Amino acid sequence: MIAATIPFRRVFVLAWWLLILVTIQVQRGFAQNAPGVVKKEFIYQEAPFPECHASTITELADGSLIAAWFGGTEEKDPDVGIWFSRFDGSRWSAVREVANGVQAQGNRFPCWNPVLFTLPDGTVQLFYKVGPSPRDWWGMITTTSDAGKSWSTPRRLPAGILGPIKNKPVLLSNGALLSGSSTENDHWRVHLELSLDLGQTWTKTASLGDVEKFEVIQPTILNHGKGLLQILCRSKQDVIVQATSRNGGITWSELSATKLPNPNSGIDAVTLADGRFLLVYNHTTSARSPINVAISEDGENWFAAAVLENSPGEFSYPAVIQSSDGLIHVTYTWKRRKIRHVAIDLKKLKLEPISVWN
After folding, report:
1. How far apart are CA 246 and CA 98, in angstroms?
2. Which candidate, 352, 278, 267, 266, places its Cα nearest to that of 322?
3. Do residues 162 and 279 share a domain?
């Protein structure tokens, strides 16, 4: 009886420790990766704020990466500021706050939706919003020329200009900087903002579409070349919505539904160096999990490429870029508690019909 009990106890203890180790690995971000995912990590393990959201990422001239997001007690609380970290090729730096909503009168408003963008001369722009709510916020910008060690005095964008509302702008071949923006007043509406001097002055289009058909925000821009542009938008209608421009973003087509679902959550996309398009989004209409990667050659027909998360919880508001070495870098909200960074090797992805996720 004793001899039979000892092996059972050993098996039980080993199984218990194995469970603990697996749990720790998952919490640290080392869960099994999808094909093509070559790195999956948290940007930080500990931070001086309990909640975070709406990350953004860009590559610096030296090939390093920087990321930013908003963090504080909870979204909409006055202590929510813009936080920052730099990846030097081996590790992410300690997080630090680089912008907040403190006003000249001493009162403080929450910050929202930072957007990083690297200009051709290496200067990095950080756009963000300040205000009590998305109905009442205003656009802000600060810049850095030393990889985030120091930042310029933040300045408010011109009246009526909000800046890129969630996703990175696109630098067109004619030197114009095109930003996807939107408003959330009585209805959700998208518009585009255009700068011919890299953000010093701006013009904007009229709001697009008919709110009786689609209420949309937070466009991401795909560049097909030769003046053809496409936006993909978050919507209230359970579907990703699109529009196209054939004159470099000056005028746009009517909004129309794509074949892709949307649970009223943020998306982001990038035009790849090979001319294809990559989209990160939640392939569902009911939750913010799973979070998926799809690839298209024409911006209309999409193929399933990877599932980054599929467990219960919120995995949302992705940002995506392609770095100079060809890798794809994605950041996103992980359960409002951390920011996840994922690196993807395009050559290792296994594309399948999008219907595998339906």
Report:
1. 38
2. 278
3. yes
**Same domain, residue pair 39 and 27:** no
Q: Which two tokens stand for residue 250?
A: 């000056």
Report the 3 state secondary structure along 241-261.
Answer: EEEEECCCCCCCCCCEEEEEE
Task: Decide if 311 contacts 296 (C-beta within 8 A).
Answer: no
285 Ramachandran zone, left/alpha/beta (phi>0; psi -120 to 50): alpha
Q: What angle do CA 56, 58, 61 make, to 5 degrees?
A: 160
Q: How many domains does the chain have?
A: 2
What pLDDT, in 10s, does the model give residues 60-104? 999 999 999 999 999 999 999 999 999 999 999 999 999 999 999
Interatomic CA distance for residues 288 and 309, integer angstroms: 10
When pLDDT is averaged across residues 131-142 and rounded to a whole number, the result is 98
DSSP notation for 123-153: -EEEEEEESSSTTT-EEEEEEESSTTSS-PP
171, 112: one domain:
yes
* 192-206 residue pLDDT tens: 999 999 999 999 999
| Cβ burial 285-310 (10 Å sphere, 16+ → b, else e) | eeebbbbbbbbbeebeebbbbbbbbe
Range of the domain at 12: 1-31
* 194/316 same-domain check: yes
116 and 165 inside one domain: yes
Give the 3-state secondary structure of residue 26. helix
Task: Tell me what percent of the residues of the chain surpass a pLDDT of 90.
Answer: 90
pLDDT digits 0-9 by tens, 114-133 = 999 999 999 999 999 999 99
pLDDT value of residue 33: 81
pLDDT value at position 7? 53
Of the candidates 165, 78, 170, the one whose C-alpha atom is nearest the C-alpha of residue 128 is 165
Facing residues of 188 across strands?
184
